[in-house]
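Postdoc handover notes: sequence design on the structure in folder B. Input tokens:
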């Protein structure tokens, strides 16, 4: 009997999904253990070998805000770029952009939120101030051919305010696109979304934004991330963020746990017959390498089920 994957994807699902690996940034930013720069570089290189088209390698933020990312320049300059992989660096302002460019960045991500409380805690700006800060960044990036992504955090709920209106997400999405970002990533920062919220938020966004420019970024705090991904794919999304091993979270969102684990996502996608271009075994190798440095077991269910194999 032929497996599902040999027959192509289940009805309504995309043939191919671009998985954006965010472990080295979203994963490591929330880890207590000090990770040596050389180990971060080795981790990114192992992820490159797995075949990702996009890896979020680091962030050029205030080292006081996120000490774990203080060596961003050394990490970015130290990795061995794989042809076909885009290495993205987060930047919150012009200072971060200048540091990123000096370190050789060819792709950046700016990040704001759909709710004021989280924007204030995360970047110490109102949403409007953040968009003002990003305008010269995106303009300068476009001027020198640097690819740009815009993140919208708390699109499904804010840790301090609770519910967030889908219209607020659409408003920020429109403003980021007006600035000229190439791609938007819609974030469930605190992992509260279920497919009900996904249907509401993406349903609204997709009336205004082409699916090809929209990524989803689910944290798996309440175990709903894969269900949310499946509905997102059925709605036409084909770019999904994930973190190897399920590492991470946001230091500015209380109790935020890791992103959806890349291994769990790949297991699902590949069995559904969806191509990713990523080698699951090599992602496992990268997660095991970094887990050895972090001193705790990865959250990925796939990794746990696999044991030592
Ligand atoms: P601030 O304190 O308001 O900034 O922080 P400031 O402009 O007043 O600067 C204060 C000091 O920081 C100054 O240094 C600046 O030079 C320095 P001093 O003169 O006091 O020595 N500074 C910088 N240094 C290095 N790089 C920079 C930089 N900018 C200023 N880029 C700021 C405002 C935005 C800088 C700060 O709040 C910050 O860095 N926040 C970043 C927080 C962060 O990284 N959060 C996690 C990433 S977002 C996330 O995880 C969500 C996401 O995954 C999606 C989702 O899940 O929803 C993307
Ligand atoms: Mg995140």
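Designed sequence:
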């Amino acid at each position: 009997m032929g497996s599902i994957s040999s027959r192509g994807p289940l009805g309504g699902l995309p043939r191919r999904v671009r998985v954006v690996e965010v472990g080295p940034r979203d994963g490591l930013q929330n880890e207590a253990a000090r990770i040596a720069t050389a180990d971060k570089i080795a981790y990114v290189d192992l992820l490159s070998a797995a075949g990702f088209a996009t890896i979020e390698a680091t962030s050029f933020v205030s080292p006081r805000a996120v000490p774990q990312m203080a060596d961003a320049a050394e990490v970015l300059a130290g990795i061995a770029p794989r042809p076909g992989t885009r290495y993205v660096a987060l930047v919150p302002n012009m200072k971060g952009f200048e540091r990123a460019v000096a370190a050789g960045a060819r792709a950046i991500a700016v990040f704001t939120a759909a709710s004021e409380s989280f924007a204030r805690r995360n970047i110490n700006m109102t949403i409007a101030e953040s968009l003002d800060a990003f305008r010269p960044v995106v303009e300068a990036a476009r001027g020198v051919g640097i690819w740009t992504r815009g993140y919208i955090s708390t699109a499904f709920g804010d840790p301090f305010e609770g519910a967030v209106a889908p219209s607020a997400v659409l408003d920020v999405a429109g403003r980021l696109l007006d600035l000229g970002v190439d791609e938007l990533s819609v974030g469930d920062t605190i992992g509260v979304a279920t497919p009900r919220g996904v249907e509401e938020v993406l349903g609204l966004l997709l009336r205004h934004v082409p699916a090809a420019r929209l990524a989803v970024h689910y944290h798996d705090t309440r175990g709903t991330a894969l269900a949310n991904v499946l509905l997102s794919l059925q709605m036409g999304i084909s770019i999904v963020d994930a973190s190897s091993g399920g590492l991470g979270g946001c230091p500015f969102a209380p109790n935020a746990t890791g992103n959806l684990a890349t291994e769990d996502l790949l297991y699902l996608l590949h069995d559904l017959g969806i191509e990713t271009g990523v080698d699951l075994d090599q992602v496992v190798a990268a997660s095991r390498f970094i887990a050895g440095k972090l001193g705790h077991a990865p959250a990925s269910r796939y990794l746990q089920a696999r044991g030592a194999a």
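Context for whoever picks this up: The longest strand covers residues 107-113. Don't rerun without checking with the PI first.
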